[in-house]
Amino acid sequence: MKITQQMIKARCGEVSFKKGDSFYRSNKVLIESYSEEECKAKVVVGSEEFNVFLVVPTNGKIHTECSCPKLASYNKDCQHVAAVLTAIQHKQSNDLFSLFQKESKKESGHQRHFETREVLDTRFTFHLIDKAPNHHVIGVTLFINQLKVEKSRELLKRIKGSEPFRISSTFTYNPDNHCFEQSANQILWLLIDMIDNELSSTNEENALIVTPAAWRQIEEKLPLENTNVQDGEIFFKAYVRQEQLPLSFLLKKGDPEGYTLHTPSIHKAKVLVQYECVVIEGKLFRLNYHDCKRLSELKNMTKQAREFIPIMDNQLGFFLEKVVPGLKQLGNVLIDDNITNSLIKAPLVAKLYLDRVKNRLLAGLDFHYENIILSPFQKKEPSKLIVRDTKKEEIILSIMEEANFVKTEEGYYLQNEEQEYHFLTTLLPKLEKLTRIYATTAVRNRIFKGTFKPQIRVKMNKERTNWLEFTFDLKGIANEEIKEVLIALEQKRKYYRLRNGSLLSLETREVEEIQAFLRSAQVDGQDLLLGVSVPINQALELLDHVEGSSAFMLEASFQEFLDTLKNPGKLTFSIPDPLNTILKEYQKQGFNWMKTLSYYGFGGILADDMGLGKTIQSISFIQSELNTIRYEKKPVLIVSPSSVTYNWLHECKKFAPEIKAVVFDGPKQKRTELQSKWIDADVVITSYPLIRKDQKWYEKQRFSTVIFDEAQAFKNPLTQTAKAVKKIQAENRFALTGTPIENSREELWSIFHVVFPNLFLGLKEFSQLSKKAVTTRVRPFILRRMKEDVLDAFPKKKEITESVELLPEQKKLYTAYLAKLRHDTLKHLDKETFYKNRIKILAGLTRLRQICCHPQLFVDGYKGGSAKFNHLFTIVKEAKMAGRRVLIFSQFTKMLDLIGKELTENDTTFFYLDGQTEADERVKLCDRFNQGERDFFLISLKAGGTGLNLTGADTVILYDTWWNPAVEEQAADRAHRIGQKNTVHVIKLLTSGTIETKINDLQEKKRNLVEELLDFEKGELTSFNVDEVKELLK
Q1: Which backbone phi and psi does 542 adopt, to 5 degrees?
Q2: Whole-number Å distance between alpha carbons of 147 and 683
């Protein structure tokens, strides 16, 4: 395929060509395979990878494919295809090396994917160098194209620096013309790292001494065909073997007495202890450090004793038991027939005898080797030479010692009941695997082996349907002893001694579960005999112990209750008209879930994905309660962010006009007047700020239901908002939020502390619960559905992150501010001063983010441009051509002003919304946009991230990063929600190599928090620790 610049522009358009050319020149193109017929490549932009495939059929026309979601609908190739075509054009012009591999000094000698340089023949010769008697080190000499390198250290330094080096008068290494085969390159870089870490430069120039640490890495990568080891005049291949060493050890009868150990071949071994290897007869063997050390010392002993090592008669037993097994790790051990014929080689049979006499547990222990019986207390040596299994003997004796037996000449005894119980239940099972046990009936009956199955029966109270009843049931124990067993169980004793003398173990799983239940319930175990009743909404903590436990017997009434919690559809409630025909099936399930929790007096969190209709499900619930609301004269209270109060009023009028809903807002006089008539309303709608202002009035009223919209508003329990909403009195309490957890699981506790206080105890106790315990507890009381799970054929949301390089004038400014911030911040990066200076540090980080957006946000007189700003209007231009309708979000209102000014200059009309926009005006602006009046909407990220329905948009641009990724997702879901008919493209803009990229990376690390806890939400980055700030400022 022949590529020209003119052809690329024709296929991709001027804009995509320029972007592709920029990608190519920024080394963002990686060619995976290339031929005249086809090409596979990747274009790496920030953290995103785009796969590009080009093929040339027989007709010669190039066919292209790219994995990116193309923004424009016009028939042109994308910027990633343009980047790859540009790369191929330069390849065809021989500008190959800078394209197919990013510049990296460490890889300068490495063989590339499309290599045209000469691959050098590189060989290594390793020398054994004697530093002292029996002290050897390994040196290495390099050969390049059969030429010996006289100055190896200098060559390695030049390879590291990608610099030429003259090896001989006829050959000079040049990284532009030469490279190394992969395995050779790896060894060279291990040697480079080695000399970089040297404390001094005393290494010889001709033969580098390889450190033991470097050797252990190098030997794994040795290419045998290009490697030699030289031992004196002997050259051999560096075979690294792991089989038994070719050494032999011979034990003989001494003359005239004792024994001798002969080591005929040990002098051939060169032991390199620190290198953990041995060289014998031209072969190199791996050996662990301890065996190397033993072999070296054994060699020294042999040298001193010359012909053999003497062994005394009384040392032979120890030698056979301890030394011979170690020698077998070093070579072949031969024992003279004269010795073996006099040895007894029989397996150990240990026998343990147990009896109970006068409240004592007696024990006898013997070691049997064929017909020879040895006592552990025997001091006299046996008459015959026995190869004893000392390892097994020692294990058995250690267990007997652990049991605290008292030793006597006749054996052992125990006279402590607790120690006896521990021995019989814990240690004896271990001994059963090592010994033959002979126990009398008195011992066998000492531990109770009858049926013992303690249980707590759980049922619904017949008189009071919202109460649970717990009673204790113990099978297998006489009725007159059940009370005493319960007392022992409460006292956490390990066993209970029955009246017949048997010890009843209380260390079963069922007992542990009952003990945990009693601690949680804070009831006297004896009360369980008569039965304990607890209100359901106060007993939920106890249910953690019940499910899946054999210690609890669940009666049918209680099992039915649990099934109802897990499957709210088991209790059916009629949905009022006309909502019955409007609600989708999953919304009907949500309505049923709210009604079920209300029936039992529970609170809950409706945590459906953004855009799934939490509002209409709540309105359905209110409509179904309307008769009760009016009869008891207890309105529903809805608390929401100020920006969406009128959206609630609008939705109530739209879906349930029968409901009399009133917004309590405005100045104090107006609110006071509305409060005086509150009893006439069905629904009171107000905001979190006004709840704080009018807290005294609200805490005196009693509502039928309170619904907290965007409940993450009180995720911090220490805020005034959390304290105010906690005091609101209502029979039913629900929280609505698409993000039940944003940063830590304590936020989940804070929300439940308001809507369902009895679900958990205090924050301290909650923080000690395992993730599994929290998940089990909250599962019935959080309803979470995702769009892809409940909506058939719902339009996709395609998310893409686009990175741009700062402009030179931006980069200069950014670098200066970063240096200043580093200097000012580093002195505060310790635990004592970090918290006090967090606001100051955050302000500095915000300045860096503003420079990435546009320096004009705070730098007076800045006349330069902004790379991201320029890129935004490239997208805007393409969006207009493709007929896209676009939401542009930024957290900086001044940035929105700059964008709006540029749109105006380009004759592009738009809507604008920020925190100053009145609540009722927000609703009108959304309606006008959705009706198609204008194609662009500029929105402040925090002000417009919630409560807006903008399904008229099909493209969302997140101009700058927010600390909390959940806020970004909420913004994107203003368009990606029910009513959307088109695929929604979400484009996130980043500046590469800046704080924006690092914030994005930190966000990804924290997203797993909630997935691990609840499997329904994503984490957040709203706070920094010291290490994270250091990472941001790198």
Answers
A1: -70, -25
A2: 92
Q: How far apart are the first and last CA of the chain?
A: 44
C-alpha 476 chain-centroid distance: 47
Measured between alpha carbons, how far is 557 from 468 in angstroms, rounded to an integer? 10
769: number of CA atoms within 13 Å, CB side? Answer: 24
Query: In this structure, are strands 122-132 and 135-144 parallel, antiparallel, or unpaired?
Result: antiparallel
Give the long-range contacts of residues 585-594, CB within 8 A, separation 24 or more.
Answer: 585/790, 586/612, 586/785, 586/790, 587/612, 587/613, 587/616, 587/617, 587/620, 590/614, 590/617, 590/783, 590/785, 591/617, 591/620, 591/621, 591/624, 592/568, 593/568, 593/783, 594/618, 594/621, 594/734
DSSP H helices, 827-892, are 831-834, 838-853, 867-882
Tokens read off for 844: 């500095």
Radius of gyration over every alpha carbon of the chain, rounded to an integer in angstroms? 41
Q: Give pTM, 2 decimals.
A: 0.51
The CA distance from 108 to 194, in Å, is: 18
Dist. CA 448–CA 496, nearest whole Å: 10
Q: 3-class secondary structure for 88-111?
A: HHHHHCCCCHHHHCCCCHHHCCEC
* Residue with token string 């089990």: 776
Helix, coil or strand: residue 943:
helix
Q: What is the mean pLDDT of each run of 10 residues along the chain (1034 residues)?
A: 83 87 80 77 80 78 82 73 87 47 45 67 86 83 91 90 89 89 88 77 63 86 69 64 84 83 87 90 85 89 75 79 83 85 84 93 93 80 73 92 89 92 94 95 88 81 71 78 83 87 87 77 67 70 68 80 74 88 91 90 88 92 95 95 88 93 92 91 95 94 95 89 94 90 81 88 82 81 84 80 89 88 66 64 86 92 90 90 91 94 93 89 92 94 81 93 78 85 90 85 60 42 51 58
DSSP H helices in 508-584? 509-521, 527-530, 536-539, 543-546, 556-566, 579-582
- 523 backbone dihedrals φ, ψ, rounded to 5°: -120, 155
Alpha-carbon span 850 to 866, nearest angstrom: 11
Q: In the structure encoding, which two tokens stand for residue 117, read together?
A: 């340089």
Residue 541 CA to residue 659 CA, distance in Å, equals 37
Contact 922, 993 (CB under 8 A): no
386/350 Cα distance (integer angstroms): 15
DSSP strand pairing (911-913 vs 63-66): unpaired
Contact (Cβ atoms closer than 8 angstroms) between residue 343 and residue 396: no
Rounded (10°) angle between helices 838-853 and 867-882: 50
- Torsion (CA) 890, 893, 894, 899 in degrees, nearest 10: 50
